[in-house]
Amino acid sequence: MPITNWLLAGLGSLLLAAAQFATPPGLAATLRASRWQHRLLLIGAPTAGQADFQTQKELLAGAAKGLADRDFQVLEVPYDQLSPADRQCWTQQLGQPLREFVVVLVGKDGGVKRTSAKPLPAADFFGTVDKMPMRRQERRDKK
Questions:
Q1: What is the DSSP code string of 26-75?
Q2: Sign of the C-alpha dihedral, residues 21, 96, 107, 84?
Q3: What is the mean pLDDT of the chain?
Q4: Is residue 15 within a helix (H) or strand (E), and if so which, with residue range?
Q5: How many degrees, rounded to 5, is the angle at CA 82 between CA 100 and CA 74?
Q6: Which of 12, 40, 60, 82 lies most in the core, judged by the most C-beta atoms within 10 Å?
Q7: Strand order in the sheet with 112-116
Q8: pTM across the whole model
Q9: CATH 2.60.120.200, domain 25-142, yes or no
Q10: What residue ranges do the domains of the chain occupy?
Q11: For residue 19, pLDDT beyond 70
């Protein structure tokens, strides 16, 4: 019996360690999981240190309540850290290049609703989303 307990304890530790170092889901999996649940705001740039990438993060930093109210998830997408599968998803499924900054708004239906090659304030994205029929229905349902 002590060997069984030791094996179970060892297995539990191994699973815990694996969970701590698990790779986050890929971009395609995130898009699928978010469909009909969240809007995505994808901040893409060649590197995380790129100036427009940092500016976009700063512009969104004070908008947590507005982002949450509109069911946004903000994802950073530094191209130099993407797996080959994520690179393919970015270029083919989302239709975005891998050479320069871009911010992409993906609607709850999974479609690209807006892109910008320049950082934008959160209010610009809110304006786009607030005009969508699904968002207007969400607001009516909350009343």
A1: PHHHHHHHHTTT-EEEEEEESSTT-HHHHHHHHHHHT-HHHHHHTTEEEE
A2: negative
A3: 83
A4: helix 2-20
A5: 75
A6: 40
A7: 72-78, 39-45, 102-106, 112-116
A8: 0.78
A9: no
A10: 25-142
A11: no
Q: Is 15 left (phi over 0), alpha (psi -120 to 50) or beta?
A: alpha
Residue percentage of the chain with pLDDT more than 90: 68
Would you state the pLDDT for residue 11? 43
DSSP, res 79: G
Query: Residue for token digits 């995505």?
Result: 40
Give the amino acid at 120. Answer: L
- 3: its two tokens: 């060997």
Q: What is the mean pLDDT of residues 105-116?
A: 94
Give me the amino acid identity at 129. V
Q: What is the pLDDT of residues 52-83, one digit of tens each?
A: 999 999 999 999 999 999 999 999 999 999 99
Cα separations in angstroms, 123 against 79, 118, 128:
26, 14, 9
Residue type, 71: D
